[in-house]
């Protein structure tokens, strides 16, 4: 059995990628499709999802399903459950995130709370939902996108870093709790990557400086074998950093 076949047997035949419209999420979806997994693409914007779905089907011959959805919605979990109820899903990649960057007090409280909804409540709901399904089938995996900022507090991203620390700790606990059931969980701590969302989240007037200073030129970082997906063929570690 090849590595691709083994990966598909354990984590296929379907994968759900949340935050898949561009950047790292789109690259993860591409890499999973290249390994033969059918993909459910989930993000807010319909057009980028449809374009990605068409490309993956044409390039890799996999089936795709798109779900335009704001993961901050109160009923997001029910929407995802309904859209995937007829699919044998074996892998969840939660890449969706809201990055509020700037002085903590300059950001309205409702934006901080929205950050909690997308970055913490969303992965909690989907990990609980798909974790039940994976445990029942005796195999599967979950990748939660954390960040290197999760390892220490930092000015201007204090709350964002805290939400990413939540993902790291959640993944570590679930890795220990579910591994005997055949369900692997990992948190991926990505470095700064020059994605559209990274540039757009910069404080007003600093987008160009952020774009020029990003040490990682593109989402192709996700293809590197040192990255989370490259290391996660067995999804053994609870924390992956490039």
Question: Overview of this structure, please?
Answer:
With 242 residues, the protein is an alpha/beta fold. The protein has one domain: Rossmann fold (3-Layer(aba) Sandwich). It has helices at residues 3-11, 23-34, 46-60, 76-84, 109-137, 158-178, 196-200, 207-213, 228-231, and strands at 14-18, 38-43, 64-68, 89-94, 140-147, 183-190, 239-241. It has a 7-stranded parallel sheet, with helices on both faces. Strand 2 (38-43), helix 3 and strand 3 form a beta-alpha-beta unit. Helix 4 (76-84) packs parallel to helix 5 (109-137). The longest helix has 29 residues, at 109-137.
**What Rg is obtained from the alpha carbons, in whole angstroms?**
17 Å
Instruction: Give the assembly state of these chains.
Output: single chain
CATH architecture: 3-Layer(aba) Sandwich
Number of domains: 1
Uncertain runs: 206-227, 232-239
Strand content: 15-25%
Q: What features would you highlight for this structure?
A:
alpha/beta; Rossmann fold; 7-stranded parallel beta sheet; 7 strands; 46% helix; globular
List the helices and strands and how they pair.
Elements: H1 3-11, E1 14-18, H2 23-34, E2 38-43, H3 46-60, E3 64-68, H4 76-84, E4 89-94, H5 109-137, E5 140-147, H6 158-178, E6 183-190, H7 196-200, H8 207-213, H9 228-231, E7 239-241
Parallel strand pairs: 1-2, 1-4, 2-3, 4-5, 5-6, 6-7
